[in-house]
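Sequence in, structure out. Go.
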Amino acid sequence: MKKFILLCLILSTFSLKALHLEMMNRVFISNSSIKLSDVCRIITDKSNEFEKIKSIEIMNLSYEEKSKNLTNSALKNILQSKTGNYIEISGGLSVIRWEQTQISEKIISDKAIKFLKKKLLNNADYQFEIKSFPKVFAPLNSYELNFNLIDEKKLTGNVILVGKVFHNGKKVTDFRLLVKVLKYQNICIAKTSIKRGKIISINDLQISNEIINNIKEPFFKIEDVIGRIASKRIAAGNPVSYTNTAIIPDVKRNQQVKVNVKNGSVSLIFEGISKGKGYIGDVIQIENPNSKQKFKAIISNKNEVTICLGEK
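Output:
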């Protein structure tokens, strides 16, 4: 480079009708606007026509344009459009580009996690795993890295982010990044094995910080579980949720219930046997223990039903 500049200075002693710029291998440019004098340091003819060229910006190009190989003719056209003068170029293929740097995995990771944390709720703890990083290059010390979600609704599990690198407001490149987001939260789990049909008590439960990505409708408070019935066996250490528990029925199967029969101003009360289970508002079948006759009735209260006359 020193030899090249020296050569340019020697050439500056000559009166030139056209500037001669010899491109040796690659020229790396680290500024967003390059003056002709910064490229080759040629002091030209003292005429006003060439004096003004020294301060004209000839390479105010975007990063993506500077990252392309340029033929001599293409570079000539660019210089001529910027300066208004013909500039002779020799030396084969020219590459005018920014100095690049590979964005480190730490920077990519920190930016991605910071972006996700802003999107996620604060009522849980999260763990982030990135197993594979793409190679991403950007202008040296002059870029912005932003992230977006592929799916705005998917914030846990395998989350795909789109990373975009910008320079001077224009996109340089983009890439995809897979982040595994594990959500931790305090939930109720079985302290000991809970049999199916057992009414759950405080002694059956404990709170534990667990990954809840694949747990459907867990309980977060012990008081919300006490008094519910296990709808299936729950092994010790397993989550207790709405899917493996149920509210105790207001009427159980084969239970003796109070039967109210109403017909206008006439009412009759007797004891019956439920042939099904259900909750207030459900219709179940009731059997008269004496006549063995069966009726449909609406559960009107706990252990109490009302016969629907005319329906058998």
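Check: The mean pLDDT is 75. The chain has four domains: 2-98, 102-183, 184-246, 256-307.
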